[in-house]
Amino acid sequence: MTTPVLTGRLRRRARLREARITATLVIVIAALAVCGLALGKASVSPPDVLAAVLGRADAMTRFVIMELRMPRMLVALLAGACLGLSGALLQSILRNPLASPDVIGITQSAGATGVIGLIAFGLSGLLLTGVVLGGALAATAAIYLLSWRRAGHRLVIVGIAVSALCSGVVSYVLTRGDVRDAQEALVWINGSLGRAGWDTSLTLAVCGAVLVPAALAGGRRLPVLELGDDPATALGVRVGRTRTLLLGIAATLAATAVAIVGPVPFVALVSAPVARRVTGTGSAALLPSALIGAALLLASDLVAQFAVPDVPLPAGVVTGVVGAPYLLWLLVRSGRRRG
Prior knowledge:
mainly alpha; single chain
């Protein structure tokens, strides 16, 4: 009788802690959003930002806030959330902290498809998004089939091989394409929010409105999947079908973000471990992971815009500088555990 009572109390405490962390992350994101709307060559005070949002500011302020900065902020928020949620799903499904879309080849395959579409066919907008999505899903299916029934570290190894292949394809296409097209594609391949607009933010919002609820609903089965295939099957979960569905959702989330902002590295890799650490749970922590991904990309874009005066950098450069040491630390830690 005591054990169920204690278990219920622990679950309530975990839920309360996760709710507090979620509320804190929402406040952090709101503060970063205000900074993103206020800072720039034409600085605007927070009250003027609010006035512009409410339509009470002058025409110039409204144009700067609503047409230049607001779409960029929304794209960073939505793309970061998609990447963070994608990484959390993959790491929980495969029970591997290295299983993120930018490590197992999903991001690179989406990037290679996007570069081919940009340079070889001159695609843009929704058509480019669809092509990138199709390429990412095809690569995900290939990676999953090549690592069939050994989805742990073997999938990571296969994904690394696919990433190397896609990097070679990108290099070849860039060298064979027109210089101006190659320059535009090179900026996109490094993860840039410079092309953000209301059309791209609307595309992300529509995709997120479909995929995020599906991911959160499917994520309810993750604690059972993390027990292992045999226990999950014994509890009535169709392991193969559920894993394939969640992998498809994770790949679609990552591909949608990549189609808009390019292959931003390490956001998906870092978000879920940070979420699990701050919430103090071993569960997937999907919603905190999405919020951390959004906050990370928002903060990285701010740093990229203002770190070097008069030299705007792609946001992917900042996330790469932050994420690469984390990946090395994770590899060393995993090696020590095996040893």
